[in-house]
Amino acid sequence: MITYDTALNVFHLQNKTTSYVIGILPNGQLQHLYYGARIQPENLAYYLDDTNKAAGTVKYYEQDHKFSLGAVDQEYPVDGIGDYNEPALSLFDATSERYPDFHYDSYEITKVKARNVKVPGTFGDANQVESLHINLKDEQNNVWLTVTYSLFSDTDVISRQATLKNEATEPLQIHRMMSAALDLPAQPGAEFIDLSGAWLRERHVQRTPLVQGIHAVGSTRGASSHQHNPFVALASPGTTEQQGQVDAMLLVYSGDFLAEAELNEWQRPRLLIGIHPAHFNWRLMPGENFTTPEALLVHSEHGLNAMSQQFHQVLRQHIMNPKWLQRPNPIVFNSWETAFFDFDAEKLLKIAHKAKKLGADLFVVDDGWFGHRDSTASSLGDWIADSRKFPAGIADFSTRLHAIGMKFGLWFEPESFDPDSDLYRAHPDWVVGRLNERHSFGRGQYILDMANPAVVDHLFDQIQQAIADAEVDYIKWDMNRNITEAYSNYLPAEQQGEFMHRYMLGTYDLMGRLLQRFPDLFIENCAGGGGRFDAGMLFYSPQIWASDDSDAVERLKIQYGTSLVYPIDAISAHISAVPNQQVGRQTTLAMRNNVAKFASLGYELDPNLLSDNEQQQIKKDIEAYQQDADLIKNGRFYRIESPFESNETAWMVVSPDKRHALFGWYRILATANPSPKRYLKLAGLNENATYQIREQQAQLTGAELSTWGIRLPYEFNATNNDTAIVKGDFTSVVYHLDVK
Ligand code: DGJ
Q1: Catalytic status, residue 738
Q2: In the prediction, which pLDDT does 259 show?
Q3: CA distance 403 to 655
Q4: What spacing in Å lies between the alpha carbon of 725 and ligand 1's midpoint?
Q5: Residue ranges of the Glycosyl hydrolase family 36 C-terminal domain (predicted)?
Q6: Domain 2-318 has CATH 2.70.98.60
Q7: Confidence class of residue 386 from pLDDT cuts 50, 70 and 90?
Q8: Catalytic-role residue among 156, 256, 534, 548
Q9: What is the pLDDT of residue 49?
Q10: How far apart are the C-alpha atoms of 363 and 351, rounded to whole Å?
């Protein structure tokens, strides 16, 4: 997958569909030559004949007016040496900025990437992954930079990472160190695509045409956030789900991030992604290394669906724990929207019994089971069951749940504590923020200093004890507020700029240690809904609670947007009661089921309060979901019609062998006098195969379904409308397609 042309000093990285070409300039600097559709360049020298000359730029050599760094496409641009665009690296000594100028020294190719539970990142065995490490040296400052590229045999993603080593005798300060920079050819009219939104409205697809200057999204909240996601794509004008050229980057990280595109004076874009420099200042002592989080790069020649499928593949095969790959995620009943803080063991067991009868696998006791927590005002940090709610103890509750064949899930919010908690009273200095100064509240709680190893040790002891005592099978790991007044009472003054990153490293360490202690523990991630839906968390959690908004109509947008990057089985989607808690909307059980079906299905309602018909329907829905679970878990997902562009949404998932597919169509509001006959073109099917559409008793070829389309339900809303299949607002259908 990786070759080095010694005559031309060029590295050629190739996977099935893409090529990535890196050159070493005559002066030893690293040049970016190409990233795009796979090529077999026989005349590479032609592309190296590049004088890099551009008017109006600073020359790198005084005597050589042909060479300007500002006009070179670079692999890892550095601040302050002639390229004025956004840099990947900015370095200081104790007082002022240093200007490293890296030159090629050597390279190494390695196979195998072990799964290291301390920090999220890709992994693979010798047949799956090959990595190129290019070592560069800056003689003047005595600092080394290694840029690493990994390729995978089963996906066309390229991962990138950078490591800086201080070989000088004085400490250095890293002010900015991005995971990857990508200089691309000019594409007039290119669009910046990102996933943005808000709490309850996470990961909506946003498209912005680029103009000269910088366009960026990011987070300085200590979490990847509800507002933005650590992902960015640059798409050629007019890119759709099925066509167009896309270059995208995803950061494997859950904390502060910056994703930006700068369009320079020649309309050439530079994409960058990495830790946000705003609250980042890492002290690098002599002899120390710093390695960035990994960035995953995708180039697609066939639109956004092809980009998403590459991300899904790399996340499933090389980020998520392989343990869960072949096992369907459990069907969960969760106590939160069912009972909020108002429950005790008997009430929950009554719900769990009924849930079991309906086919659920697992019952989660959400917030409120510990300390004396009857509201958000107290007890976070005291992970001991509340004896008023669990008089016989939480272990007894677990035993009773296990006795009826239900697994047991328990909610934690490990990274926070409340002022009214034994933990805060015992360790006020574990708070994030300077002691004796004002601290902002969020949901009434403070953040724990996860950069302090004593805090991580304490949490590990308490949580592992709770898990062991109550034989917990699953934990829901929540995180409900963002960081303010960032300051660690543990770190020395010179290292305060490391706090935000060390916070994430401490959190990852805690998750990794718990998973080492309990290898079968299933962690569902959550951060006030979808505030940390990112590849860093997916490394530890096979699924993430996508949003605190469980309304089916809102979820169309959230799930559609999330699927741009993340596999649908990683999206935790629960059916809740109506009217919906967040928006007050009344949707049918069928609509709620048909949306949640294209995700990891669960429930947040009390089935005892439902009619017999509704209970029977849920039982059937769970059975049907279980039959389709493999398709959801391992299939290829295609977005067909976007809720951001119309009143309708459609998507489908196709099995890897293309023999089975599941198609979902949703209409938000009814329209008067709709078109009588409508077909929608499907994607991903075997054109030569004949598919039986189960719900339509029809047989059609893959070619017909992809070119002519599948017939949408007949609508008719005049007065005499008996034959209409869908009527009213919030309607949907799910069709199964199977090769005969
Ligand atoms: C926020 C989560 O997203 C909810 O599902 C629930 O767990 C609450 N926190 C509990 O406080």
Answers
A1: no
A2: 98
A3: 36
A4: 37
A5: 648-737
A6: yes
A7: very high
A8: 548
A9: 67
A10: 9
Q: Give yes or no for residue 478 CB within 6 A of ligand 1.
A: yes
In the three-class reduction of DSSP (H, G, I as helix; E, B as strand; rest coil), residue 544 is classed as strand
Same fold for the domain at 2-318 and the one at 327-628?
Answer: no
Residue whose token pair is 């099995």:
655
Q: How far is the CA of 606 from the centre of ligand 1 (A)?
A: 17
Arch. (CATH architecture) of 641-739: Sandwich (2.60)
Contact 479, 223 (CB under 8 A): yes
Binding residues: 199, 366-367, 443, 476-480, 526, 548
| Alpha-carbon span 234 to 477, nearest angstrom | 33
| Residue 41 confidence (pLDDT) | 78
429 Cα distance to chain centroid: 33
pLDDT given for residue 50 in this prediction: 64
Atom of ligand 1 nearest to the CA of 545: 3
* Residue range 362-372, pLDDT digits in tens: 999 999 999 99
Question: Is 548 designated active site?
Answer: yes
Cα dist from 267 to 184, 193, 238, 263, 358, whole Å:
10, 17, 18, 5, 58
Average pLDDT, the chain: 95
Task: State how far the Cα of 190 lies from the Cα of 188, in Å rounded to an integer.
Answer: 6
Q: Is 528 in the pocket of ligand 1 (CB under 6 A)?
A: yes
Residue 405 clears pLDDT 70, i.e. is over it: yes
The residues facing 636 across adjacent strands are 654
Q: Domain-by-domain residue ranges, the chain?
A: 2-318, 327-628, 641-739
- Ligand 1: residue whose CA is nearest its atom 11: 367
Q: Which two tokens stand for residue 250?
A: 């995803």
CATH of domain 327-628: 3.20.20.70
Query: Does residue 367 have its Cβ closer than 6 Å to ligand 1?
Result: yes
